[in-house]
Every structure is written in C-alpha cells, then in structure tokens.
Amino acid sequence: MVPRYARPAMTAIWEPEARYRIWFEVEAHATEKLGALGVVPESAARALWDWWATDPVIDVPAIDAIEAVAKHDVIAFLTWVADNVGEQARFMHQGMTSSDVLDTTLAVQLARSSDILLEDLDQLLAAIRRRAEEHKYTPTIGRSHGIHAEPVTFGLKLAQAYAEFDRCKKRLAAAREEIATCAISGAVGTFANIDPAVEEYVAEKMGLAVEPVSTQVIPRDRHAMFFATLAVIAGSIERLAVEIRHLQRTEVLEAEEYFSPGQKGSSAMPHKRNPILTENLTGQARMIRAYALPALENVALWHERDISHSSVERFIGPDACITLDFALARLTGVVDKLLVYPERMRKNMDRMGGLIHSQRVLLALTQAGVSREDAYRLVQRNAMKVWESDGALMLLDLLKADPEVTAALPVDELEDRFDLEYHFKHVDTIFARVFGEAA
Amino acid sequence: MVPRYARPAMTAIWEPEARYRIWFEVEAHATEKLGALGVVPESAARALWDWWATDPVIDVPAIDAIEAVAKHDVIAFLTWVADNVGEQARFMHQGMTSSDVLDTTLAVQLARSSDILLEDLDQLLAAIRRRAEEHKYTPTIGRSHGIHAEPVTFGLKLAQAYAEFDRCKKRLAAAREEIATCAISGAVGTFANIDPAVEEYVAEKMGLAVEPVSTQVIPRDRHAMFFATLAVIAGSIERLAVEIRHLQRTEVLEAEEYFSPGQKGSSAMPHKRNPILTENLTGQARMIRAYALPALENVALWHERDISHSSVERFIGPDACITLDFALARLTGVVDKLLVYPERMRKNMDRMGGLIHSQRVLLALTQAGVSREDAYRLVQRNAMKVWESDGALMLLDLLKADPEVTAALPVDELEDRFDLEYHFKHVDTIFARVFGEAA
Amino acid sequence: MVPRYARPAMTAIWEPEARYRIWFEVEAHATEKLGALGVVPESAARALWDWWATDPVIDVPAIDAIEAVAKHDVIAFLTWVADNVGEQARFMHQGMTSSDVLDTTLAVQLARSSDILLEDLDQLLAAIRRRAEEHKYTPTIGRSHGIHAEPVTFGLKLAQAYAEFDRCKKRLAAAREEIATCAISGAVGTFANIDPAVEEYVAEKMGLAVEPVSTQVIPRDRHAMFFATLAVIAGSIERLAVEIRHLQRTEVLEAEEYFSPGQKGSSAMPHKRNPILTENLTGQARMIRAYALPALENVALWHERDISHSSVERFIGPDACITLDFALARLTGVVDKLLVYPERMRKNMDRMGGLIHSQRVLLALTQAGVSREDAYRLVQRNAMKVWESDGALMLLDLLKADPEVTAALPVDELEDRFDLEYHFKHVDTIFARVFGEAA
Amino acid sequence: MVPRYARPAMTAIWEPEARYRIWFEVEAHATEKLGALGVVPESAARALWDWWATDPVIDVPAIDAIEAVAKHDVIAFLTWVADNVGEQARFMHQGMTSSDVLDTTLAVQLARSSDILLEDLDQLLAAIRRRAEEHKYTPTIGRSHGIHAEPVTFGLKLAQAYAEFDRCKKRLAAAREEIATCAISGAVGTFANIDPAVEEYVAEKMGLAVEPVSTQVIPRDRHAMFFATLAVIAGSIERLAVEIRHLQRTEVLEAEEYFSPGQKGSSAMPHKRNPILTENLTGQARMIRAYALPALENVALWHERDISHSSVERFIGPDACITLDFALARLTGVVDKLLVYPERMRKNMDRMGGLIHSQRVLLALTQAGVSREDAYRLVQRNAMKVWESDGALMLLDLLKADPEVTAALPVDELEDRFDLEYHFKHVDTIFARVFGEAA
Fold first, then answer.
1. Is residue A195 a part of any domain in this protein?
2. Where is the Adenylosuccinate lyase C-terminal domain (chains A, B, C, D) (predicted)?
3. Which domain holds residue B55?
C-alpha cells in the first residue's frame, strides 16, 4: 500500500483494528449459536457481547505482544479477549480452527471492499454518462492504428467507455458474490467438532453465503477469480487513461486533464501541462494486474491447506483493493473535469484534405457499377496524392478532376459523400443500446 | 500449440479452413441482409450461397498467395471468393470493415471452444462425482501444511474438487456469454455505411449477441475476462494435479495414476511409477495462466483500435483453448482410472500414535471444566512425547497415564475421543450441499 | 509457434529431427568416452558413428510409433537407433538417465537459438546505428508525457535505442553463457553409474560448460534467467515499436513504416497507411514477456526433479525463441526502411510558438538575478497565453512585451534563448559515449 | 510493504527521509560542480553543505504541505530547502530536471538495497555451506517425481542449493551494476542547459556510473532487468522452501523447521508442528515474482518519457527489495537451525525393499551380456513384486531366486550391487566443483 494512492474508507477496512473487530464478531456469533445448541453456556456469548457493547478499544500493540510469544495470531487475539472478558471467554472458538475466523474475515473484508468499488464504479459511470451526453454529437475523428479513419463523436467514445465499465461492474458484482462465503467447519472441514448450524448462523449474521465444502480453508479459486476480475477492471482503466493521454498530446490536444491554478507541470519547463493523472493511472493498472498472478498461484494449496496463500494475501488483499479504489476515484475526477476542445477536434479532422471520406466514395463507385478492385484503385491513386501533400490538396478536388471517377459518379453525387452528418445517423441507436431507450 | 497436447475437435476450430468458413458465413449472411434492405441485389447472396452449397474446398495456399501480395488477409480472402463466385461477389463486404469479419469470427471460435470446454468440464465433473461417491466413506487423513491433522474421507477430497470445478463451469459459462458477440458496425463502429440491422441479422444467424457499441473492434475487456477465466480454471486443474502428485509420493502412496502394461517409468530405474500425467498437467496449468497476461495487456488499444492484439490472439486463441481442452480431458482420465489404496490410507493415518485425535481430547477437557490454556498444555505435553517417538508411543496410553488428565476426564470418556466414525457424521451433509439432496 | 511469425533457421532448431540429431550426438559422444574408459567396448561408439556417417534419415514417425507403446521418448529413440545400428547399440546410454540427454539437448538448442538472436541483435544494432548517424543532427521535438518539451535530434532517439539494444545484447550473451551447460550425471546426479569424465567429454564436444551440480536435471533457475532475459529484450522491442507508432500518428507523422506498392492498408479505407508492423511487434512483445512467467514457476521442482517443467518448455522453448527471432528481424527491417520526414519534424516543433524555449528563458532570468519563483511566474504567465492561443501567439513576442521580463533581460539576450543549435552542442559527446570515440 | 515482512535496515532506505537525503546530496554535488564550472557562484554549494553540516531534521510533513499546493514533489522539496538555506539556494537545480534527481536517487536506493541483498545472500550461502559440510555424507534417498530413485546425501541437496544461490548472487551483482547509473542530462537528455561534467561529478560522488544516454529518464530496461533478476532469486527461494516443506511432511519427516518452546502450531490441534516459515516464503516468492511484471511493462515509456513508471516504482521499489531481504534472512534462519533427522532418512530409504538399487542390477546384467530389453524385463518383473508388497519383499531375495537372473549374474555379484557407499564415490568431486578445491 502506497499512502498517496489510498483513500480512508477503503484503507480502514484493511487496518488491524477492523480485522480484529470482524474476528470478534465471527467468534461471538459462533459462541451465541453454540450456546443455543447447548454446546457451551448461553452466558458465554452474553459475556462477550456485553463487553463488546462497552465499545472497547482494540489494543493492537497488546495483541501483537502476545503474538510475539505465541507466534500465532488468532491464539494471541483470543488470549487478549479472554484477558478482558474473563472466564466466560474460554467457551469461545469451541470446535473451530483459526482458518474459520481468518477466512471468513477475509471474505467480509473483500465483500466490504467490493461494495466500495461498486460505488466507485457507479460514480465513474455517472461521470462518463454525463460527459457522453454532453458530447453526444461533438464530431471528432475516429482513429484506427493511430491514423485518421472516419468521423465519430466524442460522446460515442465515452459511450464505449460506459459500456465497458458497466461490464466491469457486472463482473465485480459476480466476483463479490463468489467471494462472500463463510466457513466454520473445523480442523479439516468435516464439522467433526462443530455443528454446521453454527456456520449457517454466522454466515447469515455476517451477510455471507455458506461455503458448501471447505477444507479448513475457503478454496482459493474464489480469491483467484476475485483478483483476476480486479485485473480486468484495471485493464479498462488503462484503456480510458491511454485514450486521454493520447488526446492530450501536443499535436492532438483534443482534451486535457484539468489543470488547477498553482499547479506546476515541470520544474524546468513552465509551459508544460502534462497528463500526469492518467499516466499515473496507467502505472496503477499495471500493479493491479500484477496482483492477480500470485492469487492464481495460490489456488493449488497442498492437501486440505497450506499457508502459502497467507503472506500473498497480506499484500494483495489491501494493495489491490486500495489501489483500485483510488484509481477508480481518480479516473472519475479526470472524466468529470476533463477539458474538451471541440474546435480542435474539428481542426484535426479537417487536416487530412477530406481523406476520411474516401470509403464513402469507394462505396459509391462500386454501387455505380465499378468493380471493387477498380474502385479501390481509383480512390487510392487520388488519396495517395492528398496524403503526400500533407493536407495541401483536397480529395474532393482531385476526384472531380479524375475523368475515370467522374465517368462513374457525377460531381454532385461525389460532393454528397463528403457530408459529416452522414456518419452520425446511428449515434442515437448506439446511445439507446448503451444507456437504455430513454437516453 | 504443441501437437502432443492437442485434441482434434478443438484443434479443428482453430485451423485456417475453419476460420475461412466462418468468414464466409459472416459475409454471406451480411450480404443476404444487405440484399433484403435493398442495398445490394438479392442475387448477390444467392450466388454466394449457391456456390457454398457445392461444398467448395477452401484453397488455403491460394488465399495465402494472394495475401502475400495484398498484405491483407481479408482482402485476400474476398478476392479468392470473387475468383470463384464471379461478378456477384463484388457486393460482398459492402460498408463493412475487416474487423467486422475478424472479430465476429473470433467470437464464434471462442464460443465453440467454450462449448467443448463446457463438455470437458461435464465429463470431469462426472468422473469426480463417481469416484467421490465410491469413496464417500473411505477414511484418510486430512493434512494441513503437509502435516497430519484430523481424519477426512477420500470422498470429501473429491467433493471439494467437484464443487471447485462446478464453480469453474459457471465461470466459463459466464465468460462464454460475454465473449459471444457480433460486431458489424463498419470502419469506426458508427454504422455510417451499414445498417445496424445487418449486425442484428448476422448475430442471430451465427448464434451471437449484438455488441452494443464497438469501435471497429469488439472491446478487448471481453477477451481479457475470457482468458482470465481460463487461467482460474487452470489453477483448479493444478490443485487437483498437485493433490494426486502428493498422494503418489513413495512415502504416502495413497493413490496412483493408472500404470498401463508396457509402460516404462524410467529408462534407468525400472521400478519407477511416476505421476507424470499430473506433473504434465501442472506445467500446462502454468502455460494457460500465462496466456491471460497478454490478454489483459490487450485491453488498452489505442483510440478506436490498433492491431497489437491480433498477434497475441493468434497465439493465445488456439494455444489456451487447445491446451485447456487437452488438460481437462487428461485430468478426467486420471481421475477416472485413479488407483486408490484405502489400506494404505488407513496405515498412514495410524502411524501417528493417535495424535490426530488430540483436538477432541482438548475439547473434552475444556468441556470438563479445564481452562483452555491448561487443556492445551496437558494435551501438548503428551502429544509431543508421541511425536518424538515417531509412532512408537500411543497418545491414548500416555493420556491414561497422566493423572492431571484423568483427574478431569475418566478413562472411558478418553477412549471415546479416539473413535474415527465421529469425524464422518457430517459427510452426508456436505455431499448433499455439493451434489444435491439426492446424493 | 505461429508459422507467420517464424523464420526457417530458428524454426529448424526446434523441429523433432534437429532434436533427435542432438540426442544422437550426445549419446554417441558419451559412448565414445565410456569406451575410452573401458566401461563399454570401443567398438560401440564406432558402430554408432559409422552409421551416423551414412547420414541416415531420422524417421520421426517410426520413433513416434515406438513411443506410443513405450510411453517414453528417450527409450523410443534408443530403440529406434538400436534397430538401425544393431547389437553394438546396447552399450549406449550406460549409466545415463533420460534427463542427461534431454537437458543437455535443450541447452544446445537454447545456445544455438541464442547465437541466432545475438546475430539478430547485431543486425538490428547496425541498422539503428546507420539511421542514427544519418539523422545525427536532424532536429525534432523531444516529448515528455507526450507533450512537447525541448529539441532533440532524431539521431539521439536512435542512439538511445542503440544503447538499449546493446545492453540487451550483453544480457543475452550472459544468459547464453548461463544456459549452455551439460549434465551427464546419472539417475539423481551422483555419477554413481557414470564417470564425471563422460560429462566433461560430452560438454567439450557439444560446446557446453559442465554443470557443477545437477540433480538428474539441470537446475531451472538457469532457464528462468534465460527466459526472463528474453522478456526484457521484448520490453525494449516494444519501446521502439511504440515510439514509431507514435511518430506515425496522423497528427505527428514524423516517420512512417515503409509502405510497399500493392499494399492495402484497409479493406474499407484506401487512404490508410498504418503502422501495422510495429503494432504487430507490440503484441509479440507481450507474448515473449508472458513466456517468462511459467519459466519462473518452473524453478521450484520437487526434490531432485519432477517433470512439470517439461510441458512448459515444449511451448516456450520454441515459441519464445522463434517469436523473438522474428520480432528482432522485423524490427530491423522497420528501422532499416523507416521513412523519416525531417520537414514535418520541424513543422511540428514550430507549432508551439516557441514554448519549447521557455526553460532557457527561465534560466536566463534566474542568472540575471530574478528569484526562481518569480522567474517561473514570469515565464509561466506568458507561456500560458501562447499555449491557449494554440500556436497563434509567439512566446518571444510576448516576452519582449512584458516589462517585468525585459527589466531583467535585454531583448537581444532574450532572442539568444530561442536558438535551436544551442540544444545540440553535446550530441557529439553522447554519440561518442554510445558508439565509441570514432562515431 | 507489509510491516511483518520488513527489516529495519532495508526499510530505512525506502523511507521518505532517506529519499530526501539522497535528493539533497545529488543537488548539492551538482551545485558544487556548477560552481566549479562558473555557472553558479561557488558560495551556493558552500551554503548548502554548511546547512547540511548542521544535520538538519528532514521535515517531511512540511515538504508534503508544500507539495499539496505545488503538486510537484521536487519543486516542493527545493522550496523547503530554500526556506531553510536562504537566498543561495536559488542556484540549486540549474539546468536540471526533476527526473535527474528522481532517477539518480532511485539508482542509489536500488544500489544500496542490492548491497544489503548481496550480504543477505552471503549469509544464506554461509549457512547452506555449513550445513552441507555437516551432512556431506548423510545418506538420504534422492527422489524424482516424488518417487524414490537412488541414494544421494543430504549434503548434496544443500550443495545444489549453494550453487543455485551462488548463481543468484552473480546475477544480482550484474543487476546492481546495471542499475547503478547517474543521469543529470536536463530536460530531454541533451545536456542543453547543463554540462555533462556535472553528471560525471555527481556520478562519482554518489558511487554510480554515468548513464551514456538518457532521455530525461534513465531507460527502464535497466529496472526491468533488475526486478526480473529479483524474480529469479525468488524462484530459487521457493525451490529450497518447497524442498523443506516436503521433507517435513508427516510421512517423510526427514527435516523440520526449528520449533521454539512456547510456539503453538495450531489453535485446535496441539500436536501440530508445521513448516510455516517455508510456506510463508513460498507466498513471498510469488509476490516478488509478480513485481517483475509491471517493471517489464514500464520499459515502453512514450517518447522521451512519460511518468507511468513512477506509480509502479513507488510500489515495487520498496516492496520487492524489502520482501526479498526479509525472505533471504528468513530462509537463512531456517537453514541455519533446520532440524535434520538422519535416522529417519535411513528408515525411509530402506522402506522400498531395495528397489533403489534396481538400476545397478540392470547395468550389471547388460554388462554381463544380457540385452538391454531383456535386462529391463528381468529387473522390472521382480521390482514390480517388491513394489506391490509395499516393502514386505526384498528385491535382492527375489533376484537371487530368479534363475534367469542368476544365470547371468552370480549371487555375490548381485549382492555387490546393493552397497550404499557405491553411490557416494563422487560426492567429493561435486563438493570441489561447488565449494572449490579446498572444500
């Protein structure tokens, strides 16, 4: 976790105190059910909850000190609770194993993190949608291979991003559902020393589903799927970030990250306005992607479990969630305040001497009976002259002067092919697909 | 693609001929709809389908030869079709761009591959289930950290694998749904030169959903999610493979890959029977995981598209699908014919002098009123003696001889704690959760 | 391996026949030394080499057929050789294990592949150097964050690439040295049944170093380092490819991949000239990077060895080497024939109204006694006006009209700061560092 | 960074204060040289060093506060220094760019980290060597595929690990050399506003080499190579960790991590002694490997630089170095205190009824004139009986009773083949190769 790329609400989920609080809740709910089942006195859970109702400070250093001797984190915590609650605490954790607590807690943390990330996505989607509608009909050149192709609108670019992040949201919702399971199944998952009813009870109380079969641990394919999903979302963040970085290039300059008063772009070059937020997001996306790898390697634990996954998750649990939360929020801010320059978009589009209309001419020629190969040749020979003139020659002029072309296509029909609005007649259809009919 | 790790049905999907066949179908369906819309003569599609009905051989070398000049694969193919069909063929591909064909075709290939993989998973699940039911109550030791913990059954191990691959199947079904979209939206995805109705028609004919918004290409977050999902499945394959490799170790030898007559384990050591299939699967899992990475890096294409994803997909499209298909089938065979040795499982379990029952004694002591800390100390001091005797001493004997223990727990109650069946009372519950109530 | 991304010389190294040839050589050399040591008759090696001198066709299908029964590739090969050579062949492989042959052979293949890759790098370096010298003083704008910064020369860009690939060459030479070892140490690497002198002899004959300690297999950290090194080289390929893709963007167009007559850029848009080779290289770089991952996971084989690395290496051995060979050659071609447009470079540089000189003015002001903060403020307020004018205003004009500026710096000194040559005074120094003093 | 996996000396290198200290030194040395060159007053550097001699506290919160407004870290730091040093500070940073400071500082941090890691490797190597010599002739079974193969010694296992980590040390030394470069080349690396002599001077003072050609930034292929090298080292850590985890398995138990008094293995099962340190190392190895990926993706920065690498390096710079330092130290402790059980090794070796000697019998038969195929068949048919008896039958007994065997090989020669010492005759050779002649 890098503090500058962390926001408080998400970070709080991953702090030791939050973790201990969830531990306690899991243990206390389990003790409650054990009491109801007659396995332990009902007074035990009451004692625990009574103490909890006093809103006790979680004394992390004290717990750490116990762990330094016992070399076992859950035992250390239970000892500390017992020190505070007294004799009734000895009924805690009956028939349970540490992993019951640890894995269920991790599930709670990942589910809560998912909830924040889902909200982040909602805000990002809202920002993208607002800007998409604002620029629904702002013409801009579509580029394939970085080369001018045909016109699109800036709203269409954003509609694409909206659809992509909407898919990300669905994927995250699915990943959240997969990860939110509770296992209280004892030493090797057989429920030998604890009734399955305890698991069901704790699951319900903690807002989780029951893990159908655990082997002391919750199987790590669930976590692999979770972090792989975050990695895919990171890819989509990178895509939009790279798009903005491209648009802000000096030669393009169709959009810019908001540049606040007082900001300095470069210590050496005062004129610089750099797309540093989206570059920063590009790097963060690389990290979030990388975190999926050890999660994938964690799946193949030995037999009923080993603990190699644990050190990995101490890193990637917080780091992936915190960084993604930060990145989504940062991207939302970038989109929200993005400076968009429609005039520049128009200027760029016009610089190619009308080459972007070449396909329409090609189609018109074939529709007028010219063979595809001949049409291609006719258009290309004129297009290449325009290309090589670096915008000085206009395609329409050259075509009008090419007798082989005009033999097939009258001049007025040629001119019709250079109309910009022609390209936007289905923008509404696409918006309706992406944002719903009311869009 | 490594031929020895490839099966014919899956490989066929990825051969050039299959690809060209799908190309043709996409083009012909599109031409048909363009005819219905009056954009091209209806005779065009008829000419195409008439030729197709003659079941023409796809002349791959001829197409390659054209591509060598044109340096464009789709143009080469269209030229070859035109050479065969004649004049009517010039109406093909009207208003379309190469990516419309390429991306829709890739979607078909990935969807068909998914169908095979889903069948593979069904067969794997069936094999696991059969063996799970066969060994529902075969006792074996559960191990955490590679160390004996408490008893489980071999059926439970397999039930866990079943639940895991069942999740994999759901994930793959979701990934298939995501990947199976059709885009026929023209040069930069605006439908400027092609009616969205064509896309809808081709989608329906090819069994795909409509891509809501494309930018010449189908967005690559879909493919990233697809290959990430295959990577997670690979993790689960590795897990079961590693389990079997562990069980076949000389010192464990609780199960073995089937060893056919005539097979030689080692050119130097004739006695060797090695778990080579599951080791092989472990390596294949590493490859399938690796293929997810470039798919994740493919998401951030430049602007409306660049073509950097294409070379990646020429590798990972076939390699990931073909290898996963092979791996699932190989794993199914391993599970199906796995030699299982219940007697050896029992022998291994007994070698620890009853230490595996220590937790039950611990619980009994606390339930009898001993503090958790004292109970732990009492059990541990006897357990450590057994441990150090390497199976020569029996825990039950030592406990009976420990007056502090017997003061809390009568000898007959102590003996009760060493009953194996006690651990299996919830096997049925777990099986019902995994396989359904009828299990 | 994707045939379209493969060149014959590299591919040949990885074909079954080449592999079997190396197997034979390893076995025959070993038999020769075993003969000299008196372990087997000297006639055995003679019989092998006599047969070899007849230049026998390697009958791959026959060997495959034997393997289908024996399920062991080395035994299958030895059987086939014995079928051809006769009785003397039974002395082959005495005291050896399959891995002795397989791992030594892989070392030979990787060393030979390295030799080709080193030649590829030499050719790439030569092409870069030639173009660097050609454009040593071709002015072009340096860009940080995609934003114009200060002038560089196109030769400097290429000098940087040269230095980077020169480092890659050194890394590859080191990786080659690490990977080129011979192990003939028997079943578990103890030389129990084979004299270390055999290993030394075969190593020398095959051009390898002796593996100091093997455990049946050559340790896989060597291979991990090898493939990780290829991954770093892929990163450098991507960097230069991305640079060219940026330069070819419509708005930049300072350089272009060579566009051959007859080539079609787009089936739909005849005017397109796309940087498809460098996009293609970008994708290949992703693949080569990905192949490093399973190589890293291969290191931790179980005990003296398991065989999980083998399936991985059947993929990445050929795929990484063949693809990198292809990529280096393709990049060499791109650099060699790159169309460079110095005029456009100059035009782009001038479009910012002289903003690129802002730092020099800043320095001049501070040297003239203005505090750094004030100087920054003075330059920035004028720079921002130029920036917002989109090239219509000139920085020099504005500064001349700013009394606070001219109070500190006379107009002629201001003008001095806008001299382009000023930036190139150390180009020679850098070239000497990169290419040597004679450059 | 996870505090529990961090050691103070390494962590200190990566704390903000350490970073600022290096920043200051770089700036002050540069100012000193600029003074000597007459570009700035010589008094400037004196003022800086005088202040530095007062050992000022680096006021991190104050610098952060300035950055919060300026949104630029280097400017914030320079401002803070100027606030402390006074007017002379305005001569700092003349002609430099932020990256000159940042990248040179990162080089210093990575070089210092490398020095710690090299020391870590020295200590690990010393521990491994000590234990290798201790167990040079401790017999233990060699295992391929997890299956008993032939005898080795425990010292040989460790000699292999020694050789592997010795290679890692050489790789790290090479990576350190590559990463330790200084760039003070100004805005886009042209030295337009700063003499190359400044770079040379600072490089020498900071213990770095000169970067031959930089583009504002030090090229990131250097960093990619550095982190890839750490990833390879992580692989070797995992290998040794996995070996120990295997040896500690209940059924094997040939070695154990040291288990300290007071340690609790399991909250539920008091008898457990788990290899948690090596499992923990396995997970850490996964993380260190993962950090190489974004470093590889960082290579292809745009044009002269973008800043996407920066956020990545804020994570992986500290996280990879700190975690690897911790892992190496932890592994050293594990090796140093490893409990080794030679008697158990012997017991395990003997459990196979002498099957491990099968190859020697095979060889003896072929040397006695039996064809390889017949010899294999004779040995295998007896070996399989032993195998199936689970150690109850002895191979030597069965061979003596097989007339086809004794027809070829007299009984006393058969018995000779079952001598353990035979396998260790080259241990000395291997030790000399690994540890040098004096070993």
1. yes
2. 353-435
3. 3-258+270-346
**CA distance readout (Å), B20 to A302, A427, B13, B316:** 45, 32, 11, 19
- Residue A228 CB partners (closer than 8 Å, separation 6+): A292, A295, A296, B228, B229, B231, B232, B292
d(CA C345, CA C139): 7
Q: What CA–CA distance (Å, rounded) separates B218 from B185?
A: 10
Q: Do A144 and C274 touch (CB under 8 A)?
A: yes
What DSSP element (H or E) covers A21? Answer: helix A16-36
- Between CA C405 and CA C374 the distance in angstroms is 10
Cβ atoms D316, D231 nearer than 8 A: no
Look up residue C1 and give its DSSP letter.
-
E strand residue ranges, B8-66: none
Question: Of residues B43, B72, B266, B426, which has the active-site annotation?
Answer: B266
Burial of C3 (0-12, 13-18, 19+ CB in 10 A): exposed
User: B1 to chain C: which residues are within 8 Å by CB?
Assistant: 1
Residue pLDDT, tens place only, C400-436: 999 999 999 999 999 999 999 999 999 999 999 999 9
pLDDT at B357: 86
Are the Cβ atoms of A359 and C268 closer than 8 angstroms? yes
- Of D347, C29, C30, D362, residue with least CA distance to B266: D362
The pair of three-digit structure tokens given for residue D407, joined into one six-digit string? 């027809």
Does residue D361 or residue A165 have the better pLDDT? A165
Decide if D308 and A280 are in contact by the 8 Å CB cutoff. yes
Q: Which residues of chain C have a CB within 8 Å of the CB of A362?
A: 268-270
Here the CATH number for the domain that contains residue D133 is 1.20.200.10
Residue where a domain terminates, one of B346, B367, B382: B346
Summarised one tens digit per residue, pLDDT across range B119-164 is: 999 999 999 999 999 999 999 999 999 999 989 999 999 999 999 9
Contact B359 D268 (CB under 8 A): yes
Question: Which residues in chain C have Cβ-Cβ distances shorter than 8 Å to B267?
Answer: 72, 74-75, 78, 93, 96-98
The total of structural domains in chain A comes to: 2
Rg, C-alpha atoms of chain C: 30
What interface predicted TM-score (ipTM) does this complex get? 0.94
Where chain A has pLDDT below 50, the residues are 439
pLDDT of residue B439: 44
pTM: 0.95
What is the signed CA dihedral for C215, C220, C221, C227, rounded to 10 degrees? 160
Residues D134 and D268 in one domain: yes
Helix (H, G, I), strand (E, B) or coil at A217: strand
Taking the C-alpha atoms of residue B290 and residue B279, their distance in angstroms, rounded to an integer, is 17
Q: What pLDDT is stored for residue D128 in this prediction?
A: 98
Do B274 and C216 form a contact (C-beta atoms < 8 A)? Answer: no
What are D350's two structure tokens?
């003997």
DSSP-derived pairing of the beta strands C209-210 and C181-182: parallel
- Domain-located, residue A118: yes
Which pLDDT score is estimated for C439? 44
CB atoms within 10 A of CB D398: 19
Strand partners, B151: B141
State whether B179 and B322 are in the same domain.
Answer: yes
Closest CA to D358 of D385, D390, D326: D385
Percentage, residues of chain C above pLDDT 70: 97
Which position has the token pair 């397999």? B158
Could you tell me which of C220, B235, D397, D66 has the C-alpha nearest to residue A298?
B235
* CA–CA gap between residue A157 and residue A404 (Å, rounded): 38
